[in-house]
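Quick start: read one record
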Amino acid sequence: MEYQAIRLTLERPLASIALARPSDDNRIGARSLRELVDACQRLRDDDGVRVVILQADGADFCRGWDDQVLAADFEMAPDPFACLATLPQPVVCAIQGLASSAGLELALACDIRLCSDDARFSLPETAYSMLPRAGGTQRLARAAGRGVALAMLLAGEELDATRACRSGLVARVVERGVLAAEARAIAESVAARGPIATRYAKEAIHRGQDMTLDQALRYETDLTIILQTTEDRAEGVRAFVEKRSKPQFKGK
């Protein structure tokens, strides 16, 4: 597929998906959704990619859906950003300017979010007698807490970068000029760790949220036992014993 709404860049072990329609405020349309699904499938099947960065060109991360998607007869999957949320690789999201509606929902489908100091977050749908269409009611409450989610959805409150960080919506706030570099530094830090371990850690956290604590602890133990059978686990132990700071992981 030839991409027009997004840009996919491979620099293994890193990969980057960029929203590439700044002239249209990076609004998400039918083509954006198709291209995102295609890009995520390519990354899912690429064993050389250990971390994915999601970012955007232009002044704003994403101002929401385009007019075509908002039309009453547009058919959308129940979770249109599941392709991103279910990637086995950790996903780092860099957010600048406004992340509204679909923009915020897209960011919520990622694992680690950081934003520029001028970032703003909103879900304005109820003002137009609509509901978020891509997981906003569910992922926002899990990321930032029920109180923050209700204030944003019911009263239309907008979060600035400071409040977003305080609530847990983003992990870090940085100056706009260093946002891309900071996102890359985080991604490189993740990529330097055991790739199977980071994937299992992501899986344990996400799946554990829907389990009781006892079930989640057993699931964590199961993943630990599987991990102990891998070559990477053995290499990590050797590196620790030999006091090597950089184990040579192979993803096996």
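The mean pLDDT is 91.
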